[in-house]
Amino acid sequence: MLFRESLSRLLDTEPDFEMIAHCATSSQALKVLSRETIDLVLLDYDLGEEYGFEFIRKARDAGYTGRIFIVTAGMNDADSVRALGYGVCGIFLKHSSPALLSEAIRKVMAGETWIDQRCIQAIVQAVDRTHQQERRKQLTERERQVLLTVFEGLSNKEIATRLNLSEASVKSALQQLFAKTGVRTRSQLVRVALEEHADDWGLRT
């Protein structure tokens, strides 16, 4: 509450800003959006009993098309990425200077995206982790063929003959399969592939 009131007083001093309302709950804010034309919503990520994502969803469902700018004490990496996925125009950390907030608001109103520098690296790392996880879920056609022959209990030499590959290529494919499933043996590979990756890899029998 104290921060919200302080922020309201700050923004009221800016000649090119017009503060329409400041709200204690998301339900109050949604009512304001239903009756006023609002260009920008400054949204706290942590709303007490709920998080800002729920407000964003409800606001968009109700037809709000303006900008939403998160002002928060902090967010974890995954939620920062999720917020950008929800279409917010930026993330601003509360302990930054008031002058910087005014600058950030002007930039997002001009169509730019503002992300606090302290959040950028965390977001990049979170996106990279997500991409790595997605890559681990995917098999090349060769890996899939080798895996299916492993299910049959074939040796490397037999797999090479069956698939017309060199034994070195079979070993390489197996190492990739071990890495993607986090196992060290063929028996573990078969179990984990069927129990954890069957749907992703189309292995249901």
Describe the structure in your own words.
The protein is of the alpha/beta class and 205 residues long. The chain has helices spanning 2-12, 26-35, 52-61, 77-85, 98-109, 117-137, 141-151, 156-163, 167-181, 186-196, 198-201, and strands spanning 40-43, 67-72, 90-93, 114-115. Helix 3 links the parallel strand 1 (40-43) and strand 2. It is elongated and about 80 Å long. The model has no long low-confidence stretch (mean pLDDT 82).
Put the structure in a nutshell.
The chain has 205 residues and is α/β, with parallel strands linked by helices.
DSSP E strands, number:
4
The name of the CATH architecture of the largest domain is 3-Layer(aba) Sandwich
CATH class of the largest domain: Alpha Beta
Q: What is the gyration radius calculated from CA atoms?
A: 26 Å
CATH superfamily of the largest domain: Response regulator
Secondary-structure map:
Blueprint: H1 2-12, H2 26-35, E1 40-43, H3 52-61, E2 67-72, H4 77-85, E3 90-93, H5 98-109, E4 114-115, H6 117-137, H7 141-151, H8 156-163, H9 167-181, H10 186-196, H11 198-201
Parallel strand pairs: 1-2, 2-3, 3-4
Helix pairs in contact: 2-3, 4-6, 7-9, 8-9
